[in-house]
Design brief:
The complex is a heterodimer of chains A (about 300) and B (about 375). Helices cover about 70% and strands about 0% of the residues of chain A. Chain A is mainly alpha-helical. Chain B is mainly alpha-helical and about 375 residues long. Helix content of chain B is about 70%, strand content about 5%. A two-stranded antiparallel sheet of chain B has the order 1-2. In chain B, α1 packs across α2, α8 packs antiparallel against α13 and α12 packs parallel to α14. The longest helix of chain B is centred in the C-terminal third of the chain and has 28 residues. Chain B is globular. Chain B starts with a strand and ends with a helix. The chains are: A mainly alpha (about 300), B mainly alpha (about 375). The interface between A and B is large, with 47 and 46 residues.
């Protein structure tokens, strides 16, 4: 029972974690992509569609990643090459993604989903209490944790990571040092797109295994809030994602138990929690100032 | 091949005027491609989208009904975006305005006289402004990111409305349908020309709001303050303009207009509260604001165009069997093209071929 609850929390947290860790890298490079929700929902519809047509959930996962990257390139072309306003362009990406996915997914509504099956390792998975939690979840759960470790190592223990952070903190100086600011930002944006697409695939291939219009239900935005909550630190994103996972699973259990509170109030808890958490974090001015990438959201046009 | 931007010495007035038109033209081309991909004749589909709804008087009335909330909300958002306050929760403020304005006809249906409607509109305005005050307060007081808080509050508002119409406000004589009682005659927004169609006073409010805000922006000190703070917060501080007062001004004004749009929609076009009262007006208005280049008069034109896509979507669904989902994809594309074309105002675009670039660099050495 206890293990079951922990596993459902992990399932609710994983899509948030994957999308947020991608956006963390994007923001560390100084770009604010508010299109996470749009890339995520496009990943969800593509993942579902490809998996349903081919019967292979893995093909669905890869297609979702590809579409996430494609969408992020659209954002990258506008904000990095044409230097459009990043906030407005991110919003455009979200609106386009929500619209397009509804259109593409119209014929998928109500179809039975293809589920990415959980792994099974003999002996290990059968360990009582913790076996399934650590050795018996879906493969993307392990990918999500590995991503956090990899991003953390990359950002703080590798030269490339240092370069990326320098671009995010001061693009002018980075450019003067001969670093290709725009190219690095393109790569970061594409990584963010891949992660958002993967997170979307998780929703439609593991979390719900179905296609429902607007199924991301604001998770892309919550992922953006998680990055702020984590003050741009990878392991704190993990903590935040699991806290949010716990809130959303907690409210589902409370609804099932039928305690005397309107279900709508319980459903709004994850959103209200996001607001509260954002307020608590932003009150601490020092924490935010030290960690916010200094060039975040600033346009950059190289002078030649 | 590489694309380079060359900054213009000053904003191009020419492209400032025609960039939205280029964007619309590109959207129509992209739309034609989209329709042919969906297996429809692009000419026919575009006809139903953009021409057919304009051919009859009743349909023009419907256009005004759809354009009113878009214009009202977008005019408010233009003040927000010009002053660098990213309110993207207008959908929630619209809903709260509708709820607050509906208190009288739903909870006190026996209260029927000429004061009801003005009071409803006032309460709608207050409801929308109060809901917008939350992200404003959090931004001004705690420096909390207003983009995320205002958006989160949209989901909360939708759930609150859902609870009201399924719970305490459900029509006692409504056979358990999730809707409130229908508004009595004194709570309904009058139609402009009842003889020819349904368009109501909401459209008049929209035009008046656009003119008033345009006047404020171009002819008053407050309008100057909005633009200075938006373009350079530092210069604004030197001029003695208060940043946090501007946050409240922009959010309260846009919240008030979104709230007015909400109550006008409910008391005009719908006549009761339901679980869903908006086809995403609050989000589409973001597109309207940018297509109108954040200029209230431009927004009137942009609002009519986006309203046309809603109507065209319905027409195309009935006549050519195009899904109504296409509309939102279409609207998303418009915003992309608008943003891309706006680059032309500040920059000239130069396409550099690799050989030419190499030769150029060699020449420098």
């Amino acid at each position: 029972m206890f293990e079951d609850i922990l596993i459902t929390i992990a399932t609710a947290a994983t899509p948030l974690l994957i999308a947020a860790i991608g956006e963390l890298v994007v923001e560390r490079s100084g770009v604010l992509n508010l299109g996470v929700e749009g890339m995520m929902i496009m990943g969800a519809v593509t993942g579902f569609g490809v998996a349903w047509t081919t019967g292979s959930p893995w093909l669905g996962v890869f297609a979702a990643i590809a579409v996430g990257i494609l969408f992020s390139l659209l954002f990258g072309f506008l904000t990095l090459t044409l230097v459009t306003n990043q906030v407005a362009t991110g919003l455009a990406l979200t609106l386009l993604g929500l619209g397009l996915s509804g259109m593409i997914g119209e014929n998928f509504v109500g179809l039975p989903g293809v589920k990415l099956t959980a792994i099974y390792i003999p002996v290990l998975t059968d360990i009582p209490y913790v076996g399934r939690l650590f050795f018996g979840q879906d493969p993307l759960f392990y990918v999500s944790v590995a991503l956090v470790a990899a991003v953390s190592y990359f950002l703080f223990y590798s030269k490339a990571g240092l370069t990326l952070r320098s671009v995010g903190d001061n693009h002018g100086s980075a450019h003067a040092l001969g670093i290709k600011v725009i190219a690095i930002r393109y790569l970061a944006v594409m990584f963010g797109g891949a992660c958002a697409g993967l997170a979307g695939a998780y929703l439609s291939l593991v979390y719900v295994p179905q296609w429902v219009e607007n199924m991301s239900a604001g998770r892309g935005w919550i992922a953006l809030a998680l990055v702020v909550f984590a003050s741009w630190r990878p392991w704190r994103v993990l903590t935040g994602a699991y806290l949010f996972g716990a809130v959303s699973i907690g409210q589902l259990h409370a609804q099932a138990l039928g305690i005397g509170v309107p279900s709508q109030l319980l459903s709004s808890l994850p959103y209200l929690a996001t607001v509260v958490v954002l307020v608590l974090i932003s009150r601490n001015k020092r924490l935010t100032l030290v960690n916010t990438p200094a060039s975040l959201g600033q346009p950059f046009v190289p002078d030649r | 091949m590489r694309i380079e931007l060359v900054k213009r010495p000053q904003r191009s007035a020419l492209f400032g005027a025609i960039s939205p038109l280029i964007a619309l033209a590109l959207t129509i081309v992209a739309g034609a491609v989209l329709f042919s991909l969906l297996g429809k004749n692009p000419g026919t589909a575009l006809y139903y989208y953009f021409i057919d709804p304009l051919r009859e008087t009743w349909s023009l009335h419907e256009l005004a009904i759809k354009a009113a909330p878009l214009i009202l909300i977008a005019v408010g958002l233009s003040i927000c975006y010009l002053s660098n306050n990213w309110n993207i929760g207008a959908e929630g403020q619209f809903i709260l305005g509708a709820i607050a304005g509906s208190i009288l006809p739903v909870m006190f249906p026996q209260f029927q006289n000429a004061f009801v409607l003005p009071l409803m509109l006032l309460m709608g305005i207050i409801g929308g402004a109060a809901y917008a005050a939350i992200p404003a307060l959090l931004k001004a007081r705690f420096n909390t990111n207003e983009i995320l808080t205002s958006l989160m509050l949209v989901y909360v508002a939708q759930l609150f409305l859902d609870w009201l119409v399924r719970g305490p406000w459900r029509n006692p004589e409504g056979f358990n349908f999730p809707e409130t009682r229908t508004f009595h005659q004194f709570a309904v927004l009058p139609e402009i020309l009842p003889a020819s169609g349904r368009a109501n006073l909401g459209f008049v409010f929209a035009i008046l709001a656009a003119i008033a805000v345009w006047f404020m922006l171009t002819r008053t000190l407050k309008g100057f303050e909005v633009k200075v703070i938006g373009q350079s917060p530092r210069a604004g501080r030197f001029a003695g303009f208060s940043q946090s007062r501007m946050i409240f001004f922009a959010f309260l004004l846009s919240g008030a207009l979104a709230g007015l749009a909400g109550i006008s929609e409910v008391s005009g076009a719908i006549g009761q509260l339901r679980p869903t009262i908006s086809p995403g007006y609050g989000f589409t208005a973001i597109i309207v604001a940018f297509l109108g280049r954040l200029n209230p008069l431009g927004i009137v034109a942009a609002g009519l165009i986006l309203a046309l896509t809603y109507l065209g979507g319905e027409a195309a669904q009935i006549s050519v069997g195009l899904s109504d989902k296409v509309v939102r994809a279409f609207q998303g594309m418009i915003l992309f093209f608008v943003l891309a074309c706006d680059t032309l105002i500040l920059y000239r675009i130069r396409i550099v071929r690799p050989q030419a670039a190499a030769a150029g660099e060699a020449a420098h050495v």
